[in-house]
Amino acid sequence: MNRRNLENFEKKRDFSSPLAEDPEFLRLKKLFSEAKKTYRLNGSELLTKKIERREILIPASVFSRKLSSLEAVAKYLRENLNLSSKEIAKITKRSVKTIYQAYNSANKKAKKRFEIKEAKYYLPVSALTNRKLGVLESVVKFLKENYELNYSEIGRLLGRDPRTIWTAYSRAIGKVRGKKSDK
Question: Is 15 helix (H, G, I), strand (E, B) or coil?
Fold first, then answer.
C-alpha cells in the first residue's frame, strides 16, 4: 500500500467501537496524529520507527570528595551501566582519552563499584554536555536550578564545602552568560 492509499485508509477507518468514546483512547489518538504530523510519517512508519535511547540518569549519590566529578561519572557509567569509554565519550561530549583517563584514575582511588539503592536526586547525562562548563559546575548548576537546593544541601550531597559549591555555581552562571567569572 503506498503512502497516499494508506493515509486515505486511515481517514476512512470507522472508530465507532466503544473505544471511540474513551477519553484515554481519544488522547492517545490525538497524540498519535500529532506525532505523525510532527515527524512527517504515516501510521505504520511511526509505529515501526526505532525508539531513541532514553536519557541516562546518574544518581547524585555517586559524587563524593574521594573522586572528581568526571571520575565519578565515568566510573558509574562504565561499571554500573556497562558502557564503553567510547559510548561515554559520545554521550558526555568528551574525548575518549579523557574518559579513559578519568575511569582509570577513579579505579585507582575507589576499587569498589558504586552500590546504588535508591537515590533522591538524579542528574541526566545531557546536563554534562555543555563544554563551556566543568563537570562539577554542570552538576551544581543542574541541582541548584532543577531541584532548588541551597548551597549547603548540594555540598552535603556532593561531599564538598558549601563555599566550593557557591564558587562552582557562580562560575557556571558567569560562563553561561559569557563572562569569564564572577570576581
Answer: coil
- Say whether 123 sits in a helix, a strand or coil: strand
- The Cβ of residue 80 has, within 10 Å, a number of other Cβ atoms equal to 15
- Cα–Cα dist 58/91, whole Å: 13
| Span 121-171, pLDDT tens digits | 999 999 999 999 999 999 999 999 999 999 999 999 999 999 999 999 999
46 vs 37: CA distance, rounded Å: 10
Grouping H, G, I as helix, E, B as strand and the rest as coil, residue 159 is coil
| Mean pLDDT estimate for the chain | 84
Q: How far apart are CA 154 and CA 170, in angstroms?
A: 14
3-class secondary-structure state, position 69: helix
What separation in angstroms does the CA of 30 have from each of 22, 24, 26, 36, 88?
Answer: 12, 10, 6, 10, 37
Cell 585507582 appears where?
108
Cell, residue 30: 490525538
